[in-house]
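# step 3/5: fold
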Amino acid sequence: MDGRHNLRAALTALGAFLIYSTHDTVVKFLGGSYNPMQIVFFSVCFGMPMVTIMLMRDRTDGNLIPRHPWWTLTRTIAAVVAGVTAFYAFTVLPLAQTYAILFATPLLITLLAIPVLGERVGIHRGGAIVAGLIGVMIVIQPGSADLTLGHLAALISAIAGSLSSIIVRKIGREERSVVLLVYPMMANFILMACALPFVYVPMPLAHLGLIGVMSICAFAAMLLTIGAYRMGEAVIVAPMQYSQIIWAALFGFLFFDEGVQTTTLLGAAVIIASGLYIVLREDNVSSTKPVLRSRWRPEGVMPRPGIVMRWQKQQRP
């Protein structure tokens, strides 16, 4: 691909991650009044019609019975946990701090690729993983008085999201993409509906409207991300997710009067540098490329773009 296509892809990805950051800012705003499980439930309710309309185009034969039930169950649980814990982390932590921890996801994907995919991780990528995890420790500062459940939730979300991504890489060629698309959303809907009576707080129309805005943002950003990966090289598009730290700092300051701690900036810089090193190195040496082919987002509202891209490929004659 020429430089013009890569530039367009990078700009498209930057737009997508700006919209994702807007989505997460709304999550944080609503989280001041509502339990994350309630937010996830209504987000899924608003998002399901859009995904359903998209899936009505499915032309592949088969049913919704998974070919790998245990891996599918594990991935579904991981996706639900990743979504709920990410929403909780956005609610209670500064936006920039939450993103800094979630940025460890590519590092964890590379680490999990060892036992799950049989990937060999040499000294270079191994060193990058260690450096990135040190960056996470710099952000969360274990042992400090400020360590909260929010930090733990963000870390759990990164781990669960990484596991979900790696399982897709393991079973994606044999499992129907529609199964991978539908199961996490249905699990979110059912589980959050069961929890709703215990956490429900009446929502005014304006706040329901914000839930709708969230769903539209997630759907639009997903489509833009897919477009970016089709336009340009993954090694150009993948690092654009790190632009979210800029929007997090800006939106946190404008809407929530948040400052950015020096330790957050330092830790984020270490994590981003480690992630970029892994992405660039995998583009050259890895056969399976688990990071480049795993576009991570919590699956609370919309499926991950990578799975949608797999499904769309199956629809081509």
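# step 4/5: annotate
The radius of gyration is 19 Å.
# step 5/5: archive (pending)
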